[in-house]
Protein: DUF6268 domain-containing protein
Organism: Orrella daihaiensis
Amino acid sequence: MKLSRFQAMTAFSLVLAGVGLPASGQPMQTGQTITSFSLTGFNQFKTDMNEGGSFNWYEANARLGLNRQFTPNWGVGLFAEYGYQHWSWSDPVAFGGESPWTGISTPQLGFSVSYSPTAAWRFSISPSIEWAAETGVGTANASTYGAVFLGTHTISPNLTLGLGAGVFRQINENRVFPFLAVNWRINDQWTLSNPLPAGPAGGAGLELSYKIDNQWTVGAGGAYRSYRFRLNDNGPYAGGIGQNRVIPVFARVSYQLMPGTRIDLYGVASTGGNVQAQSADGSQTWNSDYKTGLGLGLNLSHRF
């Protein structure tokens, strides 16, 4: 990943919409409504596994969000998202030479409610549900549900800090992901902020970006991602659970096409990765760490 964005992927959804700080990093005005959408594509090139063999994957993700600031104190957000990831394997020794999974689908729905008791403080809760499963499974026994809790304090017009946690039931396993929320405009060029939405796959990560001019921005950052998905009944681990854990480290080049519309090109190094398959009854587990793999991502986002 959200992919999960990479949710049910590397969970790499590359815009903030409805979770965490507002997408612009600035507070919304009373009565303001912001609609946003993003389209993301990513390709993980051939990556070798420590136990032998290799894999690669490609993915696509679409997200639509709606945020409304009803009063100076209360705001509400809604979002819908769909992701698909396709894996190809070559002689995966740790899995007996068989492909443990191929296509993974991740529809997701969620909303957020934010409350600002003062101009400086903001608290939010963002429940969501996602169905993460291999093609052919459907939604039965494939749900990940929970919420992201966040509190932030605006210290100055250029600095907002906060603490948050994602608490999720991720296909028969409880997961908690604490994270630091940051939006620090160091000066007119440099900004330190969260590049990813916090959710079932992990926290929001950190990115340091540099604004070259009104159109071009570059940045670099990283995060921790971990996601699980239900396997279908036709593969070698019928009805089991697949899992991918990874630390994506990335560099970004962004171009502002027009007000509210941006295109981002990402180069990603997937480090510290591990893939795992578990039998349906949980009695057996097959897994392998994998070497650092490289990938490219492209994201188009628009706010209006």
The radius of gyration is 19 Å. The domain at 33-303 is CATH 2.40.160.60 (Porin).
